[in-house]
Each structure stands twice: as C-alpha cells, then as structure tokens.
Description:
By secondary structure, the protein is of the alpha/beta class. Helices cover 38% and strands 22% of the residues. Strand 4 (68-71), helix 4 (78-87) and strand 5 form a beta-alpha-beta unit. Helix 5 (102-115) packs antiparallel against helix 13 (326-346). The longest helix has 21 residues, at 326-346.
Amino acid sequence: MKQIRIGLIGAGMISNKHLQCFQDIPEAQVVAVCSRTQESAERCAAKWNIPSVYTDYQEMLKRDDIDAIDICLHNNLHASAAIAAFQAGKHVYCEKPLAGTYADGLAMVEAAKDSGKSLHIQLGLLYEPNARAAKRLVDSGALGEIYHARSVAFRRRNRPFVDGYGSADFVQKKYAGGGALYDFGVYDISLLLYLMGLPAPRRMCGQLYQKIPMNEQRRLQSHYDVEELGTGFVRFDKDLTMDLFESWAVHLDSLAPSLLLGSLGGVKLDPFSFHTTIGDTELDCTGDLENMDFRWTHTEPKEYAYTSSEAHWIAALTGEVELLPTAELALQTMLIQEGIVLSSKLGREVTAEEVMDASQSLMMPL
C-alpha cells in the first residue's frame, strides 16, 4: 500500500474537515502541520495525532519525506503557499476557491505545470451522489445537447462574522477576494461547468449587492467590503449559457435548486430529479440516490475514489485514477466570478479577455 505523506498548511476551521476525511483513507498520512502560532499548530497536532509542528511553512517544505501539501488558508494566501510548494517539488491540494483573483489562480496553474506536479482544488459537490448521478445521465446522452445551466447557492441570512460565525477575514476583500459569489457560488458554478464539459466563458454580466441590515458594531469590526449577493449571466462558446444567484443573505424562504437543461432532458440537482419526454409523455423522475451510492461504492472497484475530494486526491496520487480537472474548473469558475465583479463595477457586459487583462494579483505572503 503506497503511503502519501502530507504536510498541512493552516490549522483553522476548514482544516478539521480535511483531516477528518484523511482519517478514513489508509493511504493518507498527515505527518506535519504548520500554523501561524505554535499554540494553534500544537492544538491541531494533538487533536489529529500529527507528529510534527511548524510555524514556518518554508521549513516544512524542505522535508524530503513529504509528498504533498494540503493548503487550508484564506483565499489570498493560497497562491503564495501553492507556488512555494510546487517549487519545493510537492503536489498540492488547496481549499476552494482557487485563489482571490483570476491572475493568482492562473499563476498557481502555471506553477503546477512548470513543476510537473498536480494541483487539486476542493470542489466538494463533484463527489456528492446527486452530482455523480447527473454526470452519468449526461455521459449516457439522456439529456441530449446541453444548452443552459442555472447556478443557485442560497442562504437567507448567514454571513460570516457579522451573523455570528467565522472570522472577519471571510468578509474582507484583501483576504477573501469576494463574498458569497466566491465563497459559496464556487461549488455550484464549478459543478455545472463539470457537467457541461468545461466550456470556455466568453462574455459575462452581473451585479453585486450588500443590502441586508447588519449589526453595526460587527460591521465596523469586520470592515465588511464584499458582496452578500451576486447575480449574473454567462455566455460560453458553442452557444451555452448560465445564470447565477449566489446569496449569503436575502429575504426569501427558499429558492429552486441549481439545474441543467438539455434537448432531451433536464436535471435539478438538490433535491435531485430528472425530467424528460418519452412516447410524447412528459415524465418527472426522482432517484434512489442512497441505494445507488451504496451499490456503486460496493460493486465498482474504483468508485471509492469519487466519494470525496480527499479520497479522489489520494487515489490520483497513488495512480489508481486520473485526477479530475479541478484546477481548470476552479480557474474557469474564478474567471466567471471576476467577470461578474468587473461587470458590476463597469455597469455593462464584459468579455473574458477584458477580465483576464484587468485581473490583478491579491497574493499575500504567509
């Protein structure tokens, strides 16, 4: 059994989710953790039985016995950590989104190619049973020609820090790059791009909002300067389109889920349903995803590699499966997100080329 020895950078809230998943993967061995303070690094190491702790990630990267790095930092710290890891000859797994800007994300992708090492991004919805079911329907031709998608991420009122959870870094552009569109929308946008076959964005328009009242003291403490709602429309090559509604706070009880439309059928993703016409009869179908997931994972030898982002990464590093194009999905998602930001700023539709040219680095040193 090949072991993948992992060094973790970042010991905050999100690292616990990664580490919990690694506990269930025999080939994954987390051997070191690096955090800003000795106290947080030691606390994480004690909780997860990690043998070595660091406060200087460059020192950790010097170790020859570490194969790969897991980055659990705020968005604008991703690029500096990832690029340093590639220069040290390590594979990289990075928490979403790819970075804080398209420019920084592109720098990460190019550094991975230059190093010959792999870059994997945590796009957790790709591995959910509804996504795997939708992918099989698409691949089987059940949807026919795909032509439109709708990306919906909904919270009624659950903004980081100002509504009571998480740190203020989540709502500051200098750390996060953006708000709901970046933090929340990345999951659904990237999943739909995956199901659509990763089409190239060509033109984007949209609007950002921060309208819902918040505790004034928390606003001042947080320096909240990102959107709580992002809306938009994207035109891709081959005449594909997508509309978006990504919210941290809106006055609604619920919204219809993300969906994918094709000439022969349509899919709603959560809750999952498939809609088609057979024998000139409109049919609406649900699925037994629990039984499907059980059957696939117990009868198909490599299905385990598609049940979580962490399991997929380790399976790819051990050569069991080919790594999904999560870096490319995340980069195209970032292009769309930044395009909507630029469109909102300029008050007009923008091209992908304009977004690429306008994108500037927000990369921060650790």
